[in-house]
Model the fold of this input.
Amino acid sequence: MLPSDLRTTFNPFRSQNTVMKQHIADLIHQAIDALKTAGEFDSDLVAHVQIDNTRDKQHGDLACNVALTLAKVARRKPRDIALLICQHLPQSDSVTKTEIAGPGFINFFISQDATQAVIGRVLSEAEKFGRNHSGAGHKVQVEFVSANPTGPLHVGHGRGAAYGASLSNLLETAGFQVEREYYVNDAGRQMDILAASVWLRYLQLAGTEVVFPSNGYQGDYVNDIAQQLHQQAGDRLKHSTTAVMADLHADAPAGDKEKHVDDLIVRAKSLLGEADYDLVFDAGLNSIRDDIKHDLHGFGVDFDQWFSERSLGQNDQINRAITKLQEKGHVYEDGGALWFRSTEFGDDKDRVVKRDNGQTTYFASDIAYHLNKFERGMDTVINVWGADHHGYITRVKAALQALGIAPDRLVVKLVQFAILYRGQERVPMSTRSGSFVTLRALREEVGKDASRFFYVTRKAEQHMDFDLELAKSESKDNPVYYIQYAHARICTLIRKLADKNMAWDSNMGLEQLERLSEATEIALMQQIELYPEVIAHAAKNHEPHQVAHYLKDLAGNFHSYYNAHRMVIDDAQLRNARMCLCMAARQVIDNGLGLLGVDAPEQM
RNA sequence: GCGCCAGUAGCUCAGCUGGAUAGAGUAGCAGGUUCCGAUCCUGUUGGUCGGGGGUUCGACUCCCUCCUGGCGCGCCA
Done:
């Protein structure tokens, strides 16, 4: 038996079948078994029975290709096999007809009774409809956003936030125990630059004349933080211009802006002393982190854990991780630095974990961090990263492997960047031009629902054009409103019925489902029936965009139905049956939008 | 140079892990509501799935090779 941390990734997802697909598959297995008994097939023949939804309803509702896949091993023509199977299929109330078509497909036509039954399941399972237990008993952590706390989130982070949040929700509906985590990069040089920036702005407010470094953080938010700090600490952190600015490397353009800012950091530390430097540092960190937290909350994204990078160093976890690698013989010294021999695990080159000046690298923190994740008992860890980090995957997986953790227990999802458009015009997003759009600005302009929806309508690896005008438009062009409108329409029906003393009677409706036989009604029911497998498939493949596309189709089915038939009618039996169908559709829209972090409003 | 992601209708994108005649939305065209919300519905035009080979009963999907675009290849974080 393998040690527990060497076990491979649990793969809970086998074929996720709907009730009906499973039933058909069972029928086919029974037929094949009967044919084995009859001597038509070898008794050791193994059939992989796959049931597909048909694209064209002329091909029935469900189709099976088993006759084609068996042709070779059974050494018979596919159509002959299909015929044999059909002749041995047990009777089923759910199947009205089977046909052999094309090269040897077996098409199944499902009875209306069986199709209508989904309505009762949706109404009784309600918000639980669509869930499954394939991930039961497994802990998975989803780490996402994790933007440096050196400034507000911008629209580039929004896609990762929307994707990670929806993915987490999806995994939960698949039965996983999910932990949502934000890794706070609160250590390192960038944070020191922020602290120095805050202090210099503070000095300016306190009346000390200093020149702000070109490499400092220029944003207005730094001023706000400095102002708060000044109110809080008074002039206690003040120093003279000469004390601050003397003997520094010159700033750009004449000098080196990197050396200049590094000198300022050293100066801040020496003039302020450790305690006061930490005060300034924490003022910046806490303010920005709280701001990010607040921003994300407004975006419908909340985390279970905000994991501090600094805590790794404070608890000596970085050195412990390096030592662990050393003990296993994967570390060597060269040029005064410590190197992890990652090439042994497929990396292009070895990587430094401890610099010649004794400082550990960011990579070393990341090794410790990922070790920590698994030590916390995660079976699987999912990292949602920006596409620019893909070069990093190999070395992190190499480190895990070196530490005895199966690398496939870490799954990295890369999210491509989104390019903003305002109609035809591309919105410049460079930080330098100062015109980059914050996530907050996006939320204020476009709204949470449309932003969340737009971010996840494209699959994550796909480059994406995000049109602000389209997302903003409250019209038919905008899919999120199209879906929400369907939901609101159904809610309006309920209100309408109450006004007319015709309140929806679900029991009567459920007894009369056989009255629902219009083409648009059947189509809507069939679409509803697909929901659980769409969810399962989306969870399995980490693809929330499938939910978005499904919901668009579902809303389309509803609107067609609504337009073709009336629900508020005198025939109480038919009226209540139709309302059962509408309310089932409403429930599925509600459930699906919920996964995507989009509200399902009762009126628009 | 090496590696990762992408290339599907004029535009924005799906395509259920290899299945039947490649689908939506939008744009274009032609229609529909005295009605429960027209933020809606119906019909229709539009494709050498980047190019070329290969694998097999069958390829947008898998393999090879070229072309194009994005990103990455630090003792930065």
Observations:
- Chain A is about 50% helix and 10% strand.
- The first helix of chain A runs from residue 19 to 37.
- The radius of gyration of chain A is 30 Å.
